[in-house]
Amino acid sequence: MPTPRERATELTALWGISFDATPISGVIVEFVKTARVFRDRGYDVYLDLGYDIKSDKNAFFRPYRDENELLPEWVELARIDAISTIDDYTPEFVANVLREVVGAGHGERLRPSMRVTTDRIRDLILDKWEELCISTVIVENGTLPENIVYTAALHAAIAEYGNRHRLGRFVLWRDHDLMWQSEPSSGKYGEFPYQNTPQPVDSPFIHYLALHETARRRTLEWAPHLRNIDVLPNTFAHRRAAVTEHNAGFRRVHGIPEDVPLLSRITRIVPQKRIDRDLHLLAGLAGRTGAYLFVAGEPAECPAEYERLTALAARLGVAGRVVFGGRLAPHEADLAGAPGRFSVRDLLAHTTLVTFLTSYDYESYGNPVGEAIASGVPYVSTRYELYDTVYGNKGFRAPVLDVGVSDLPTVSFVDEVAELLENDTERAAMADFNHELGRRHFGRDSAERLLDRLFLVPMGERTRMSVVLPVFDEAANLPAVLDSLYHQRGAAGPLDRSLYEIVLVDNNSTDDTVAIARRFAEDHPDLPVHVVAEPEQGVACARRTGMDFASARSRGRGPGADERFLLVSADADCRVDPDWLCELFTAMESGKAAIGVCDYYYSAEHFTGRPRLWDAISKTLRCRAVTFALFGGFPDGKGFAVDRDVYDRVGGIEIFYQLQGGRFVNHLSDDWDFGIKVRGSGEDIVYAPGSRVEINPRRVDHAIDEVITGRAYGSDGIIVMRDIRVDAPGPGRESDLTAEEALQAWEFSVKDFTPKNTILPVLLTPSLLDDDAVVEFFGAGLAERLGRRIAEITEEMRVVDFTPIHSYKTPCYRLYFEFAEEIFARLRATVGEDIGHPPPLPPCLRDVPPDRFPEFVKYYCEDRESGDAHNYFGNGGVF
């Protein structure tokens, strides 16, 4: 008999439950999209349509009939066995609870039955989940439902099942319609904040999802105690709808001429959807376009509304051009092998314009608009309450009817629609623009990233490290990098691969980078590899996405995983030594530091025949080894680790932006700036010299001219780096430097190195000057004067927090000029005489009187307009 923990590993089934209680709707469609990701990972998928939850759909306890025909064959319809046998659990009971307990705040006569019914439903849910070995639950439209008894039972079942199997957050609870905010006039739940309605439970087993930021904000206004609520937009398959052999006869079957514009409305036929507006629009277009209207919805759902609409169409004179086509299969259904059956996608292949003239306060998301965008079809819409939140504020283009001004289509709106129908070029341009914009906002990868993080690849309790690897077109280097990560060693042999994982962040690669990563993952199943996407270009953005992803995932390791967790940075063009992870982990564990930084080196064989260049590189790395041993140093993206809790506490990687050529670019030195944030918060950094990373020589070979001139990272204070991949355009250099070039390269390298590595640590942490080893390095006199001057400058500049970008540069530069001769003397004594003396002063400082030197150094270093100080220090050296 397996233990609960052992059995938890066998749970590979998904239970979906819809509070919508309809055979097909936007809620069900979104469930299918989400469930498909699980199905592709080997899960069995079950769906309870919720007929036994809602009492107002005339389907309570109704057996399933033809619903399976509307769903993929891999979705098995299921329901809670024996629920219909529970005493008192009837449609009348559900309606009475909603009216008396929730709406009016009374209902004491019902509470005993409510408790008994809740317990009985809970037990039946648990029995069903055990029978099917459920591992993941998705609740659709469950926030503030009309059946609070069932909701209470479901909460109780989740708590019992999660504890029984020691699961993490195995439930995704998603509200689609935000009905409790968008229909306040119904009075179903009383008045906000709905005091008689149970709030969402802040359960350790539930992760809540809202469809957009407005829904998230409103939910937290009502339930501020929720700690796990994310935004996951509805997603769509961005494939243009096309006429195929299967659907070529769609218009003919429905009596629609081939040569007329077709308006399509994909909706339930209920009053709230305001299909009457579409009929008035069609009437307004009469005589101009000859357009037809197709309404895809079930007339039998609300016969009274269907009769009202058909009568209105006759009165407006458009009955002959309106087709009530009945219920179509979901947009995603592939019905190529089902003659005579059509899906929403088949309709869109023949559609000229999608209409969505819905009620102001009814829709939360407006899926038909998203389906039109994804299919490359233009649309028109009302400005319903959340239209701008979902579509308008993102820049989508469409004629929009402001229903706050006019309840029915205005003459100007009808004219705008007519002009769009008559202008093929404008329609195509609008559809193309929306299609590409929609791919960014509503593409499938956003859902897959979140599901990967929350459910699909659970992190084992033994996992202690996530290695984050940002990549952009690294197909040439990636196999060797992944191989070096795979073959990590521990103290007694290969490192246990259950201790770490790889998070590869694809930053819009155009080559085979992602395919290589996925193939590596398939070939090496013993090392978890996750591929996530970051659409904003820039290594800083990619590193932040990967670290945030790993941090969130690590918190679901399970109740037994209470050791601290490390987020580790690596670069996709640098190979790590076999002991890299083990040495880094050991150093951080023994030192209890918040950040661990690695040692970096170049392979000398790459610089054979270039002794001057090799000498400049070697001197920089020797200086680095000394100062990092003293001060701990600062993280470099090529290799560092940070305690996850510290990462989260300081706010993670921060992206800074600067103006370059009139446009914003993200700042390159996110790793250093992050280290400054951590050091400035009072945390320690430890240097792990045994944790070594081999730097790709292309960083020098393909940027050597910029290294020589001190502009490898830009100029005038703009910290960016050009593309230095081997096949990138631009000159490389295989020959050695001239003596003059070598001197210039070294001077820029050491000018960058000295302020950042000998002054910045003590500027941020003056207490380091009390450390015996630090005092020995500086000498007692210099250490005392440096500490005094740091205090003076800090007070003078009123610097309270050194963490914002560049705030550390001015004081570091000032201290460098004031103490350069003495600091270089100490470097010569500890690193070697070949370190030499400080590079020449900027010409503007050479004739300054000695007694006014600190004063003019201040002016020079604080001058932001010329950028001269930034250019003097070279904005960073690649050595």
TrEMBL record:
Q: Which SUPFAM superfamilies match?
A: Nucleotide-diphospho-sugar transferases (SSF53448), UDP-Glycosyltransferase/glycogen phosphorylase (SSF53756)
Task: List the keywords (alphabetical).
Answer: Transferase
The protein depicted here goes by the name Glycosyltransferase
Q: Which residues form the signal peptide?
A: none
The cross-references to PANTHER family, in alphabetical order and at most eight, read: GLYCOSYLTRANSFERASE, GLYCOSYLTRANSFERASE 2-LIKE DOMAIN-CONTAINING PROTEIN
Single GO term (MF)? glycosyltransferase activity
Domain Glycosyl transferase family residues, every copy: 251-429
**Glycosyltransferase 2-like domain residues:** 466-624
Highest rank taxon of the organism: Bacteria
Q: Which Pfam families match?
A: Glycos_transf_1, Glycos_transf_2
**Keyword flag Transferase:** yes
